[in-house]
Amino acid sequence: MATPGENLRINGDRLWSSIHEMAEIGPGVAGGSNRQTVTDEDAQGRKLFQKWCEDEGLIMGVDQMGTMFMRREGTNPDALPVYVGSHLDTQPTGGRYDGVLGVLAGLEIVRTLNDLDIKTKHPIVVTNWTNEEGTRFAPAMMASGVFAKQFTQDWAYAKTDADGKTFGEELERIGWKGDEEVGSRDMRAFFELHIEQGPILEAENIDIGVVTHGQGLSWTQVTITGKDAHTGSTPMPMRKNAGLGMARVLELVDEIAWSHKPDAVGAAGHIEVFPNSRNVIPGKVVFTVDFRSPELDVIKDMENRLAVGARKICDEMGLEIELEKVGGFDPVEFDDGCVTAIRNAAERLGYSHRDIVSGAGHDACWINRCAPTAMVMCPCVDGLSHNEAEEISKEWSTAGAEVLFHAVVETAEIVS
Fold first, then answer.
1. How many CB atoms sit inside 10 A of residue 382's CB?
2. N or C terminus: which one in the chain shows less Cβ crowding within 10 Å?
3. What does the CA dihedral 267, 269, 272, 273 come to, rounded to 10 degrees?
4. CA-CA distance, 88 to 104, in Å (whole number)?
5. Are 35 and 17 a contacting pair, CB within 8 Å?
6. pLDDT in tens, 165-215
């Protein structure tokens, strides 16, 4: 297998320009992006991406979940393709780089190969996965999950947004429901570049994160029921304060996560309080505990300790409690060969690097079940993401894309 020479570099200015041109479609109110999945803005972004790819001679395929596959032929069309990509959809108040960087860096690989008239034995397929964010239609990583047979297509089609519209109907409405059977493609490997969405690389002044694992995730919805009562006239000993019960359970969540430092984390992001009135003691709370760890045994321990400890807290307070697991996936260990290709590329190009665990879910986490897979990460200012203030530098995007380029092209095998 031929190794790309260290002189092979992508056009960082062109990549940067493409990222910001894409951001003009579905602009956010504060400089970011609002291109939620299967909206009109998503359709416009797809059309621009399609044009750029077809300008480079790529052939498009679209599956029944709307995922776009843009293929550059290899010298051996029967050789398994190397896939590279991420997603173009964003959060309602998303940044310009989350997902988009990985898709357009894949396109930049093709542009660079075309500029240099380099051929590869294996085809290269640049991919835009549908509905990675899961913000309009839950869950996240939906199309890659259907591809990996973690969800059924009919189940995904039936998911509804806040207005009661279904994913399947909206996908068809915007004109991006393809004919290709989902999951019918075989892959030699899949690579994904993403911003870190965390502070580690920037804090340590490291250019490249070599992602070895993806954290597993467990979501437990907790419902605590007490009794609504007047905040002023109900004596303290006679209260059944569901809000106070939640506070004590959340302290337990924090304690559990800290006990498995440094890689485990835990918190509650979704919280509802009823009746949510200034002068009424909460009679009911519903919240979702999010536990994550790269070790399955740790996740199971955290789940068990939450169940036992939360029930004990509520029993002592005279509160009722229900716990329901509403989501999750097991930790991911990425392919040794693909990880090594990324690490070697960083060293060949002279970029500082360190192994890192992805704290967020990505399409690569599902595709890892179908094909050898690995991820590259670049730093992100203050670790801020899913926010219009999300920021990276052109130098970081270039470094990440160059490492991605070398890993993908090495795997696709240059033809001399």
1. 14
2. C
3. 50
4. 9
5. no
6. 999 999 999 999 999 999 999 999 999 999 999 999 999 999 999 999 999
